[in-house]
Design a protein that fits this description.
By secondary structure, the chain is of the alpha/beta class. It has two domains: about 150 residues, Rossmann fold, CATH 3.40.50; about 250 residues, Dehydroquinate synthase-like - alpha domain (Dehydroquinate synthase-like, alpha domain, Up-down Bundle). About 60% of the residues lie in helices and about 10% in strands. The longest helix is centred in the middle third of the chain and has 28 residues. The radius of gyration is 22 Å and the shape is globular. The relative contact order is 0.12.
Length: about 425
């Protein structure tokens, strides 16, 4: 079993040398490599050749479906390829490959090593494995890798869309931290100020190097990868994804589930998050415009949503998965009139604090500018989604997690 944090993380031009040394020094002679055709070509083949030449006992599985997603089918494919020998897993890839390997290695009481092939997600160091379970995006408890060996040349050679996706995933921390702060003062959510600041420091480094990321400059890509690792550490240290996932991730998860349900091609996670961050930053733009007097009037008009109507809306939006989403939203759906009135009063009492939180989110136009510098999309049309799908995510995405976010705040203010 792996420890809570990776024992070692390297980002340089000697990933394979580090891997061989680590496996020798830590008594890991039997290994199991997981990749897909693209990641195998990018680094997996070189890893496999080096391990075999060095005398390691290596098995491997190449996941060959056109779209590799972290779901039960791919977990079973990996499990089916196992033999009855204790092995350390090696995930050669980025998000889905890492999460599939993370889950299987945890459930088989094995360790795993990460060989990233693109700086596209912040989950490399996480203990959580985002999985599609019965059509719903769930983060399942697993473990962090024993070690991460990233080859800088491979990261820089990744498709620009994947590099920009990692940048988009990081930009989402601006709004996730703001949402987390709202949850602390309005929903009594656990909060850690030092972790929040670490996350913001990491995203600011990325923002300061947006143009370099767009050029795949090695120094900028290293900064991006280090920031993604730090974001994962922040989730690891807090024990859940709250520091790195707010409204922007809820929109992304909603789109991901919709595409999967309809059998449509997947869209890079970070690309969706980046586009969603522009939209959510726009909500914080609106929050900054409200005076306390305007908010008092809006709250006076606000009424507790009818539970039956809310559940009907969830079932309409999520179909067969609706009942599970409803269970996850019990805290919100079971609000009493007295509790709803209490939250409204908290909003009014803390309006200055809420304005200060909103002021720390860059304006939507600035978020879009940073994404363009990094080569990423900024609108739903650019990622192949419609205006209607944008509106659906805005209306229904917040149901996916029991968290108070700017989207729930806007609903209580009567904003569509």
């Amino acid at each position: 079993m792996s420890q809570l944090r990776p024992q070692v993380v390297t980002v340089d031009d000697h990933a394979i040398d580090h891997l061989l040394h680590y496996c020798r020094e830590n008594g890991r002679p039997r290994l199991f490599l997981v990749a897909d055709p693209n990641t195998y070509a990018a680094k997996g083949q070189a890893v496999a050749n080096a391990l075999s030449s060095a005398g390691f006992d290596l098995r491997q599985v190449i996941l060959t479906k056109p779209e590799v997603i972290a779901d039960g089918e791919h977990v079973f494919e990996v499990m089916r390829a196992l033999d009855p020998v204790e092995r350390t897993f090696i995930a050669v890839g980025s998000g889905p490959i890492t999460d599939i390997t993370r889950f299987v290695s945890h459930r088989t009481r094995s360790g795993f090593i990460s060989i990233p092939t693109a700086p596209s997600v912040d989950g490399f160091t996480s203990i959580g494995a985002p999985m599609i379970i019965d059509g719903v995006k769930k983060t399942v408890y697993a473990h962090a890798p024993n070690a991460i060996f990233a080859d800088l040349h491979t990261l820089c050679a990744a498709p620009q869309a994947m590099i920009a996706a990692g940048f988009g995933d990081m930009l989402g921390k601006y709004t996730s931290i703001a949402d987390w702060r709202l949850g602390r003062i309005l929903w009594d959510e656990p909060f850690d100020a030092s972790i929040a600041q670490r996350t913001l420091d990491a995203v600011q480094l990325c923002a300061d190097n947006a143009a370099g990321v767009g050029r795949a400059d090695p120094d900028a890509v290293r900064i991006l990868f280090d920031a993604l690792v730090e974001s994962g550490y922040c989730m690891l240290d807090f024990g859940q994804s709250r520091p790195a996932s707010g409204t922007e991730h809820h929109y992304s998860h909603f789109w991901e589930m919709k595409l999967l349900h309809e059998g449509r091609p997947a869209i890079l996670h970070g690309a969706k998050v980046g586009v969603a961050t522009v939209l959510v930053a726009g909500l914080y733009d609106q929050v900054r415009q409200f005076s306390r007097e305007q908010v008092a009037h809006l709250l006076e008009e606000s009424e507790l949503p009818d539970r039956g109507a809310e559940e009907a809306a969830i079932r309409k939006a999520y179909g067969a998965e609706g009942d599970e989403v409803i269970r996850d939203q019990a805290h919100f759906l079971e609000l009493t009139p007295a509790k709803y009135a209490e939250i409204k009063q908290r909003i009014l009492d803390h309006w200055d604090d809420i304005q200060a939180i909103a002021a720390q989110v860059p304006p939507a136009v600035e978020v879009a500018h940073l994404l363009r510098q990094a080569g990423g999309p900024t609108t739903v049309a650019e990622i192949g989604l419609s205006q209607e799908e944008q509106e659906l995510a805005i209306a229904y995405g917040h149901y996916l997690r029991d968290r108070f976010t700017v989207r729930k705040l806007m609903r209580m203010l009567g904003m569509p």
